[in-house]
Amino acid sequence: MSLLPSHGQITCATCFSCNKNDIVFDQTQESTPNWRITNNPLAWGSSNPEIIVLGFSKGPTQSGALSSVPHNDIAFKGGRANIDKILNFLNVTPQNKTLVNSRYACDSLINNEDERFHFGSLIRCTVERFDSAKNEWKGSGGGMLDKFVKTDFGQMVSQNCASKYLSNLPFRTKLVVMFGLGTKLNYVHQSFKLFEQVRGGNWRWINEVAYTDGLITIVHVEHFASQGSLIPNWLGVNDDPRQKYGLMARDVVNSIFNK
């Protein structure tokens, strides 16, 4: 049985051209003129999960806190209220849970190494793009997810990361929840290709936001850091066409766990 990385820092040098002994956590970088990654891979929760929850990479709110806050507080920092809403909508978190010494329901899931959840990111290192107009590196922005995985550098990094951490999952794992849809679902389609490449097998689409190889199912949901009305629209709070993606995701998850 293959286990996922244990709760904490991950030692990995796969995408870096320097000697692995020269890598310094959260300092060593690999870059092209337009994109770069910083070596700071992390993991939270169980290494033998039933459900994997993945962002794209650590955004500036998370990566900027690495040296100043405890490990358990880094994952999805600044977005946990939306994490609660999305996971609750999917019916995968305990209902009416009493919070003890925590602000959000997902806190205990992220912190607990024996829970049914593993939390991390598709790209375990921090991804940034160069904004030539502002002459600065940015870890967030519209279309970033699908734009990165379309570049040669992005394909190399994503294939390396997915091959190492997603190609051979624990027998117990049934579901991977992916935050992010991308422009016109481009991120969903790029991710489908990525899983095909690194896992092989017979992949098929279930609906517009979910696909499976018969062993695990990938479900894409609204990004937890989406701005404006995107998350309420996805949740069905507003009467908006985007709510169909939320319903599609929930229907697939419910079918997995027979709810």
Structural class of the helix and strand makeup?
alpha+beta
Number of E-type strands: 12
Reported for the largest beta sheet, the result is: 8 strands, mixed
Mean pLDDT: 91
Spell the H/E element sequence.
EEEEEHHHEEEHHEHEEEHH
Order of neighbouring strands in the sheet with most strands: 1-4-6-5-9-12-11-10
* Low-pLDDT regions: none
By DSSP (H or I, 4+ residues per run), the number of helices equals 8
State the helicity in percent bands: 25-40%
Shape: globular
C-alpha-based Rg, rounded? 17 Å
Beta strand %: 15-25%
From the N-terminal CA to the C-terminal CA, the straight-line distance is 27 Å
Note the main attributes of this structure:
single chain, 12 strands, 259 residues, 4-stranded antiparallel beta sheet, alpha+beta, 29% helix
What do these coordinates show?
The chain is an alpha+beta fold and 259 residues long. The protein has eight helices and twelve strands. The protein has helices at 60-63, 80-89, 106-111, 144-150, 152-165, 186-199, 230-235, 243-257; strands at 8-9, 29-31, 35-38, 42-45, 51-55, 117-121, 126-131, 136-138, 175-179, 204-207, 210-212, 217-221. Strands 1-4-6-5-9-12-11-10 form an eight-stranded mixed beta sheet. Helix 4 (144-150) packs across helix 5, helix 4 crosses helix 6 (186-199) and helix 5 (152-165) crosses helix 6 (186-199). The longest helix has 15 residues, at 243-257. It is globular. 40% of the residues are buried. The model has no long low-confidence stretch (mean pLDDT 91).
